Structure formats: C-alpha cells, structure tokens
Amino acid sequence: MSEDDGASRRALLSGAGATLAGAAALGLAGCGSKAKTGRESVKNVARPIQRLDVQILSHLLDLERRTVAAYIAGIPLLSRPDAKTAKQFLDEELEHTGELLSLIKTAGGKGSVRTASYELGNPVNGAEVLALLHGLERAQIVAYLKAIPRLQPGSVRAAAASILANDAQHIAIIRMAQGMTAIPSAFVTGSE
Amino acid sequence: MLGAATRRELLVTGARAGAGGAAAALLGAGPAYAASTTPAPVSEAARLERLLSVELLMLFCYTNVLGTSLLTPHAETVLTPLRAHEEAHIRALRTRMAVLGGREPEPPASVVAADRDLARRGVKGRLGQLQGSHDALHLLLALERVVVGVYFVALIKLPDPQLITLSAEIMAADAQHQAIIGELLYSGNAQNAVPSGLVQGVQ
Question: What is the complex's ipTM, to 2 decimals?
Fold first, then answer.
C-alpha cells in the first residue's frame, strides 16, 4: 500500500466518527418503543443512582461509538463474506448505541458529545481489520462486565447484559473468521 | 417456558415475553398486574436453583446428543467443548449454591424426564425423537435460547454483585453457544446465526 493509500485510510478512519450521526440516529429511530418502556423503570430510582447510571452508560456509549466507527471504516477492506457479516454486526452495534442513548435520556442525561474522530490505528488489510474489531469487541465486553453489577435498577442491568451477550456473539464469530477457537472459555470475561 | 413463580415475576416487572428488544423487559409494571399479583419474595438461593436446573437440563441434552451417532463429525467436534462449558457453569453455580445453603436440583433422571422438562419450557424438539444432526442442532439451539432467557430474567432480580457478574458471564457464553450452533445450521449467514443486537433469549 502506498503512502497515499495509507493517508486515505487514515482519513477514512478519522472521518468515520462524522459518519455516525445519521447512522446512530437511524438506530435510535428504531428504538422508539424501547425509550418509552425504559422511562418508567429508570425514573423510579433515586437521583444519585441515576447520575451514576448516566456516567456508566455514557462510557459504554463512547465505546460503542468507537466500535461503530471501526466497522464503518473497516468493512471496505474485508473479504466479501466477512464484510457481509460485519455489516450485520454494524447494524447491531448501532442498535446498542440507540438502546444506550434511550436509557441515558430516560435517566435524565443527554448522552456524551460524539467524538469527531477516533484513533483506530492504520489497518491495511482484512486480517488487520478483524484484529482491530476483535480488540474493540473485547474492550466492550470488559467494560460491560465492570458496569453491569453497578447498574440500577435490575431492568437496566438486564438491558446492558443483552448488549454484552450480543458483543460476545460478535467476538466468537470474529475469532472464527480469524481462524481461532470461537469460544476459548466457558465464561465470557474479555480476558483472552 | 418459565416456572410459575418466574412467570409471575415477569408479569409484575412488566416484561413482555417473546421477541422484542431488551427494553421489553424494562416496561414498567402495569397497574392492573401490579395490583392483582403479589408474589412472595424469591430468595437468592431459589433464583440460583432455577439457573442450575436449566443448566442441568442443557448438560443432559448435550451429553445425550453427543452420545448418539446423529451428529456429523464436524458438528460433534464443535459441540464437544460446549458440553464442557455447561459443566463449568454448573460447577460455578454449585459453588455459589453451597455458600447460600440452598437446595440443589437434580438433573433429569432419563430421556423421558428431560423431554418432559423440554416440553414444560416450551422447547419443541424431543431427545427421544431426533432424526439427525439438523434436528439435534435445532433442539440444542432452542434450549440455549431458553437458558439465556432464564439468565436475562435472573439479572433483573439478583442482588449480589458477584452473582450478577457470574450470571452475565454465563449468559454471554450461552449466547456464544447460540451463535456457534447457528453457524453450524446456517453456515456463513450471520443474520440467522446472530439475529438480534439485543440478546435476551426466550422467556
């Protein structure tokens, strides 16, 4: 790959964040009923717990947005079958951002400001993109496992666990695409 | 299908069974339900017993399926570690159960008993009627979805942070099992193997 190509790739990776606005909005648009259903549950908890939840959920949202950016930037470098799978996973990551935003808003938060760009390295081929996605999914798993016991009420905890479970599925399929054992442990801990 | 107590809890928390986003379980309790049902508090040990019970059924089904000649060699290779995972889940839950002093459920005593439990939980397949690898994989996939659903419901109610983390780790692992079995059934079709961004299983 030439230096120009590298620069273009960097530009693509840096610009990915900007592409997210519409995509994330789409994810949110599909979650109208979820926002409504989450509202009562989250509003019924004490204000300090809501503040803590907003902090935790906002951190998770940042990680999800970074992963979305990586999928958007990386898909063009993947083989056709891997790209097809990655597009599906991208849709699901967007669903996660929508779910988190609706939970944050119903807890009285606004959601953190979207970062303009993310430092995602400089992957130049499909294998490097898969490695990047693997790392980001793993970081999300670690973050969700740290967050889940701290979230209140239990319904918000379960919602976060449903996202964690999906990220765990992503990482298993990505590991298969990388020629690795799909599920290396009986417990999903993010420590591979 | 859930046990009666769990079903009541689900109604009271307002979670609507079936397909839908995770937020379905976030739905606030409808006043009518809240007023007409007042379930007795369920102890942490009782919740753990439910998790153990469904894991024991899952292990029984893996063991039974792997003990037949129904599976293709590839499917057998893929599924063998998953059975070991279920054994590890059961060991971890038993350790917690010992601390709580709860009653440990028995595994299914026979294929007939397991099939009865599968029917009770709304799983369509029956161990005694499997015709081939496809049937076996569908049954295991259906039960993995039920297992994930049991953990999803438990996570709404469990109070202990350590047990919450353990449950989340196991729920995520069982979701991975779903994805891998889905890959065996629908190779290369992520839409079928990982059909939803919010994994809450079947309740």
Answer: 0.82
